[in-house]
TrEMBL record:
Protein name: 4-hydroxy-tetrahydrodipicolinate reductase
Domain called Dihydrodipicolinate reductase C-terminal: residue spans: 131-267
GO BP term, example: lysine biosynthetic process via diaminopimelate
Pathway: Amino-acid biosynthesis; L-lysine biosynthesis via DAP pathway; (S)-tetrahydrodipicolinate from L-aspartate: step 4/4
Positions that bind (S)-2,3,4,5-tetrahydrodipicolinate: H159, G168, T169
Keywords assigned: Amino-acid biosynthesis, Cytoplasm, Diaminopimelate biosynthesis, Lysine biosynthesis, NAD, NADP, Oxidoreductase
Record's subunit section: Homotetramer.
Cellular localisation: Cytoplasm
Domain Dihydrodipicolinate reductase N-terminal residue range list: 5-128
Matches recorded under PROSITE patterns: DAPB (PS01298)
Catalyzed reactions per annotation: (S)-2,3,4,5-tetrahydrodipicolinate + NAD(+) + H2O = (2S,4S)-4-hydroxy-2,3,4,5-tetrahydrodipicolinate + NADH + H(+); (S)-2,3,4,5-tetrahydrodipicolinate + NADP(+) + H2O = (2S,4S)-4-hydroxy-2,3,4,5-tetrahydrodipicolinate + NADPH + H(+)
Length: 271
């Protein structure tokens, strides 16, 4: 593709949306061509730069996602599951790369994303940082190497405003651990304990979610056996790592065949 990759951003006014806008601006190979906000938002119809408190950027904030998809080569979407499902259909219609950082999907909603994958490149990941995706690979390999004498627990902490739990990253790590053991994550996930729960079931993968303060993201994968523990940890201190990863995915998706991809594909680490 000649020239810069045209990228749109869904949810421009949000904290993540503004970071995505910054990340697109930092990328030499990309240019920002459109952004959206929900209908009725104060930014609608305004120049994006002025709405963000800076100089004009020549991009008007829209409440019409179709308009943004039609003018973009890739759209980055960190919104809500319901909005992302609607956006996936627009991406398929526009044959546009759809980078999905949205979390909190149900299994049914994830399945509902599949039809769009026949017509568009869809890159979806619960976390788009390089470090977390390396942690995912390590989790799978360690789980594969260790038997069920090692209990697996995943502990995550995020800021007080996060609305879904466990985090998409924690679920991604759980899927990786289950894949390493050759089992279905849904069959072994223990997503909450309270009261008289009984002894821990052998082979389960436990998840615990902590919320407080302004924590960007902390994830521990604990392998615990009698007499020893192995702890794999990732600490995020700047949300820009997620935004830069998303832009990298948007650029990587250009010229790919339609289908479902994740950050392991983007980073070239697929086995």
């Amino acid at each position: 593709m000649q020239g810069k990759v045209r990228i749109g951003v869904m949810g421009a006014a949000g904290r993540m949306g503004q970071m995505l806008i910054r990340a697109v601006g930092e990328a030499e190979a990309a240019t920002l061509t459109g952004v959206t906000e929900r209908p009725g938002h104060a930014w609608i119809g305004r120049d994006l730069g002025e709405a963000m408190g800076g100089p004009a950027r020549g991009v008007t904030v829209s409440d019409d996602p179709l308009e943004v998809f039609a003018g973009a080569d890739a759209v980055i979407d960190f919104t809500t599951p319901q909005a992302t499902l609607a956006n996936a259909a627009l991406a398929a219609q526009a044959r546009c790369v759809h980078v999905i950082g949205t979390t909190g999907f149900t299994d049914k909603e994830i399945a509902a994303l599949e039809p769009a994958q026949r017509h568009s490149v869809q890159v979806r990941a619960g976390n788009m940082s390089l470090g977390v995706n390396l942690l995912t690979l390590l989790t799978r390999k360690v789980a594969q190497a260790l038997g069920e004498d090692f209990d697996i627990e995943i502990v995550e902490m995020h800021h007080r405003h996060k609305v879904d739990a466990p985090s998409g990253t924690a679920l991604m790590l759980g899927e990786a651990a289950a894949a390493g053991r050759g089992v279905a994550f849904a069959d072994v996930a223990d997503r909450g304990r309270d009261g008289q729960t009984g002894a821990r079931r052998r082979g389960d993968i436990g998840l615990a979610a902590l919320r407080g303060g302004d924590v960007v993201g902390e994830h521990d994968v604990i392998f615990a056996a009698d007499g020893e523990r192995i702890v794999l940890r990732h600490l995020a201190t700047d949300r820009m790592i997620f935004a830069r990863g998303a832009v990298r995915a948007a650029l990587w998706g250009q010229g790919r065949k339609p289908g479902a991809y994740d950050m392991i594909d983007v980073l070239g680490m697929r086995d």
